[in-house]
Design brief:
- With 124 residues, this protein is mostly beta strands.
- The chain has no helices and eleven strands.
- The strands form two sheets. Strands 2, 4, 5, 6, 9, 10 and 11 form a seven-stranded mixed beta sheet that branches.
């Protein structure tokens, strides 16, 4: 099993920045793709960004391209989401996820075997 713990959420004014962290523990050799999802009240969970942990390839939702950056520190087994130029519509609970094997486009939640508990981001 893999345990994922997110941190770094909070409240920020529009235009501000936050950096989310996702620390992995357990059988971390067991996945090769990690992603950030978010879910706002009354909306479906949507993929925000993803990274191939083997190759470092990155993927972004159109709504965050140019503003968010996903990265990883392999030694620390941690994935980050740097969020700049935050907008009100970025308000959501953000979840970290890990996939053993990709069976669908990166933004499909069905790929991901492990999920964190989430961290709230509020933009006002």
């Amino acid at each position: 099993h893999v345990q994922l713990v997110e941190s770094g959420g909070g409240s920020v004014q529009a235009g501000g920045s936050l950096r989310l962290s996702c620390a992995a523990s357990g059988h971390t050799y067991n996945y090769n793709f990690m992603a950030w999802f978010r879910q706002a009240p009354g909306k479906e969970r949507e993929g925000v960004a993803a990274i191939s942990t083997d190759y470092g390839s990155t993927y972004y939702a159109d709504s965050v391209k140019g503003r968010f950056t996903i990265s990883q520190d392999i030694a620390k087994r941690t994935v980050y989401l740097q969020m700049n130029s935050l907008k009100f519509e970025d308000t959501a609970k953000y979840y970290c996820a890990a996939a053993v094997r990709m069976v669908a486009p990166w933004y499909s939640r069905y790929n991901y075997n492990y999920w964190g508990q989430g961290t709230q981001v509020t933009v006002s």
